[in-house]
Amino acid sequence: MAGESGQWFWNAAQNPFSPNTPAQWEPYSAQDNAKIEQSLKNKDTKAELASHHIFFKERMQVHKSDFQKQRPVKRDPPPPK
Fold first, then answer.
1. CA 37 – CA 3 distance, rounded (Å)
2. Where are the domains of the chain?
3. Is pTM, for the whole model, over 0.85?
4. How far apart, in whole angstroms, are the C-alpha atoms of residue 72 and residue 58?
5. Which of 31, 47, 67, 70 could anchor a disulfide with 39, C-beta 3.0 to 4.6 Å?
């Protein structure tokens, strides 16, 4: 994590919506994380990655070609100064 940026994660669990399945938070790559952070800074409603959209209000990753493929996302804030 560089500067003022937070780190974004997606839930990689086999069934990310099951209350019985523990979350497996995987970080986005530095490049994708920078895109997400820039979209958030711009107050966009979503960030566009190569094959997914990140919807900020819903905190959801959605596959561009299959809206049924969704996963929760989260953001860890930047570390304190």
1. 12
2. 7-76
3. yes
4. 8
5. 47
Task: Report pLDDT digits (tens) over 7-51.
Answer: 999 999 999 999 999 999 999 999 999 999 999 999 999 999 999
CB 7 within 8 A of CB 77: no
pLDDT at 53 over 90: yes
CA atoms within 13 A on the CB side of 2: 6
The Cα 9–Cα 36 span in angstroms is 11
> Residue with structure tokens 């399945």?
21
Alpha-carbon span 56 to 23, nearest angstrom: 19
Bridge partners, 53 (sequence order)? 48, 62
Query: Where residue 78 falls among pLDDT bands split at 50, 70, 90?
Result: confident
Using CA atoms, how far residue 60 sits from 2, 32, 45, 81, in Å, is 23, 15, 11, 29
